[in-house]
Amino acid sequence: SAEFGAGVDINNGGLGYTYLLYTNSSANNQIVYCQTNVSISCTVTHSVVSTYVKNATPLSNPMYEDLASTKNDLTHFLLATTLAPGDTISINLLSDNVNGKALWLQSFIYKNDY
Q: What are the pLDDT digits (tens) for 90-111?
C-alpha cells in the first residue's frame, strides 16, 4: 500500500502514473491475481483509466470509469497472469484532467508458484 499525501499527478501529460505493485522474486514461475483499490480526487468530473502492466507491456484489461466524481474510489482486479522470475506487475492510472490525483492505493497480491 502507498499513501501519496496531497496526491500524485495521474494525468502526467497524458502518460498517467505507474506504480510498481509486485516483483516475482521466486526462482519459479508464478500465477498471480491482484486486487487494487485506489482513492482518487479531482477538482472536476473526469474520466479515469486503470491498466495493469507486466514488465513494460500493458495487459489487455484496461478499466474505464467515465465521468468519475471529484472524489471516488476505484477497484481493479487482475485475473491469472503468469510471471517468470524477475517479472513485475504495476498499475497505471490515467485521468483525462490535469487535476486528477491519486491519494492512496492498496493492492492485494495472490500468488502461486509452479
A: 999 999 999 999 999 999 999 9
Q: How far is residue 54's CA from residue 49's CA, in Å, rounded to a whole number?
A: 16
Burial of residue 13, with CB atoms counted within 10 A of its CB: 0-12 exposed, 13-18 middle, 19 or more buried? exposed
pLDDT tens digits along 19-32:
999 999 999 999 99
SS3 49: strand
Q: Which amino acid is at 57?
A: T
CB 43 within 8 A of CB 70: yes
Q: Which of 81, 104, 95 is nearest to 22 (CA)?
A: 81
